[in-house]
Amino acid sequence: MSSAIRIVAPSASSSTNTSPSHQPRPPPSSTTEDKKLCRNILIYGQCRFEDKGCTYSHTIHDPNSKPPTPTPNPAPTSGTPLSAKTAASAQVFVPGGAAPAAGGTTTPGGGSMGAGAQEFIPRRAETPALSEDAPFFTPASQRPQPPGLNPLASFQNKLLEAAAQQGAAASGAPSPVGSDAQQQGLAEYYSQMDLNGEYAALQAQQMHDPSHQGAYDYSHGNGHGHAHGQDPYFGAQGGMGHFVRQPLQYHLYHPLPSSAPTSSSTGSGHSSFFLPPSLHISLTSKSEATHATPSVDMKLPEEVGGYTGLMPLDKAQPAVTEGGGGWAGYRSWVYKAWKEGDGRAYCLRRIEGFRLQHEQAISVVEKWTRIRHPGLVAVREAFTTRAFGDHSIIFVYDYHPTSLTLYESHLSPLSSLPPNPCSGAGGIPERLLWSYIVQLGSTIKAIHNSGMALRGGLEVNRVLVTGKNRVRVGGAGVLDVLLWEGQGVGGYQQDDLLSFGKLIISLSCGSPSSVHNLPKSVDHISRCYSPDLKNVVLYLLSKPGPRKTIEEVLALMGARVLDELNASFVFDHDPRWAETGDRYLIKLFRDFVFHQVDENGRPVTDLSHVVMCLNKLDAGVDEKIMLVSRDEQSCLIVSYREIKNCIEGAFLDLSR
Ligand SMILES: Nc1ncnc2c1ncn2[C@@H]1O[C@H](COP(=O)(O)OP(=O)(O)OP(=O)(O)O)[C@@H](O)[C@H]1O
């Protein structure tokens, strides 16, 4: 059946025909009655976009009410019963208002099969949305984002906001660096990302703005700045057209928190059917970051040592370091790449222009690859390459999507963390700071016990925040290779402790440059933080000596270490949370399922028992079981259904 309709010139008779049955149809109006009911009204009872441009109807009509516009052949309403005669001669109802063509055959569904009949177009097909079930689409740019849910997105948003305030501050002539095609491709990329120009412009402005004194001064803070403001090549891109890549959220369903009260106090409204939005967004943005590809041709090699699909991760063009700080005076680039035959993403750190002099130097990386610790960005391998057109060395690390450095997360003027409650002071809250200190302390201990030293890894722009309050030291092994001397690590381990102390000072004072004025910084710590923190900092800054070890540091903060460990086992500051009420029942059930013993008390592993129990739990059957405490002094008789309810309740508590 063709959907084409012949276009014919209107005849005079047809144009003058004014009989009621030939009245021209009124132009399609967009009255509330015509509009489709907004699905948000159906699901939530309200639509947050009602006054913000939602084009759907927000009024629920009574289906029994009289249609507002009389039609030429009004269909009988429920209030006017049809006589047999009327019913026999009544026109067949045609969906969508299409009148049956004369002589046409009426299908059971009411459609006409006449030769001149229009093709039946289902109403769904008229809807531009992918499906009628799809939620009302709001462009990502207009959609309100809950603040702080996505650190990368909020960081980028802040970059853009800051840029808008600054205007096109960046200007200047091309820099002599990066004259080759690669540099050109990267420059285009950064300008498209709309990050580098703005970021550099903001930093440059802050460096020259006296009101920002005491704030971040990267080039002086750690001796290897990005040379903001002196990088006109990248800065010049700031004035180019804005192109902001939108996150892929159009196919997702993020239930917006409803302002309407939930139907029950347990919070088992519609939202309990979905992942919490923060978790959903976090998982999605990680997945998107992992699969992101450059939006312009980066002029990067297609393959480097078995890694493909290189995508730069630097947010600004890395600078050549003066004075041997940072990466020993070499420029470093960071890329995400896929390993061939492995299918996993990795992080490649390229040290540009480094020529390996000693083969043994790279063997240090072997040792690093054997260290696995949750506080360390795992080192995978290192190799030299000429794929970039120069002598480069590549260090391969695990890739942690959407991670930011400590500087980017907390110390940058664009970071989103609330300041320390200590009046007028920068620095991060003490509880978070201790969590970082304990994590980093345990990492240093693991590294030192393996006979290695972090050597420069303990800086605010080397430590990555890879999850909520999770930190990992990055860049391990780079300086071992770049500054290889074939000597022991004893002195470097002492340097690690000193760097650790400086890192704590930077975080507690809210600025990397605070390490240049130690008395003032220590005074700030003693005013705004606990004496424990001050003691740890003073110990770390003290003179190196054989008795100054990371074990001593951990002993000094013993109580805090326990606190941090306990935090994993308690909920809501209640150490007995898992020991009481419903949770105790769950613990006993866990023993029942996984820790069965025989009559002699020996463990028994019976997989069929495990599977059967979990299936019954999943189904929530009424069958009852007896749970016995470990000391065999008490027992409880409960049904799988009750246990299932307990588990769901505990899960809700934890995810609230
Ligand atoms: N292992 C990793 N996984 C995921 N992202 C990473 C990883 N290492 C670094 N990054 C990302 O790369 C960005 C640049 O890292 P880099 O270590 O170069 O920081 P930087 O501040 O540019 O310091 P520098 O250039 O002096 O080393 C960081 O913001 C971080 O988001």
Please sum up the structure shown.
Residues 1-36, 59-116, 205-238 are annotated as: Disordered. With 656 residues, the chain is α+β, with helices and mostly antiparallel strands.
Helices and strands, with pairings:
Layout: H1 12-16, H2 39-44, H3 84-89, H4 123-126, H5 151-166, H6 181-193, H7 196-208, H8 218-221, H9 232-235, H10 277-291, E1 303-304, E2 307-312, E3 332-339, E4 345-351, H11 359-369, E5 379-385, E6 392-398, E7 404-405, H12 406-411, H13 430-449, E8 463-467, E9 470-473, H14 478-482, H15 490-509, H16 518-528, H17 531-541, H18 550-556, H19 558-567, H20 581-594, H21 607-619, E10 624-628, E11 635-639, H22 640-655
Antiparallel strand pairs: 1-2, 2-3, 3-4, 4-6, 5-6, 7-8, 8-9, 10-11
The structure holds adenosine-5'-triphosphate (ATP).
Biased composition (Pro residues): 65-75
Protein name: PAN2-PAN3 deadenylation complex subunit PAN3
Region (Knob domain): 574-656
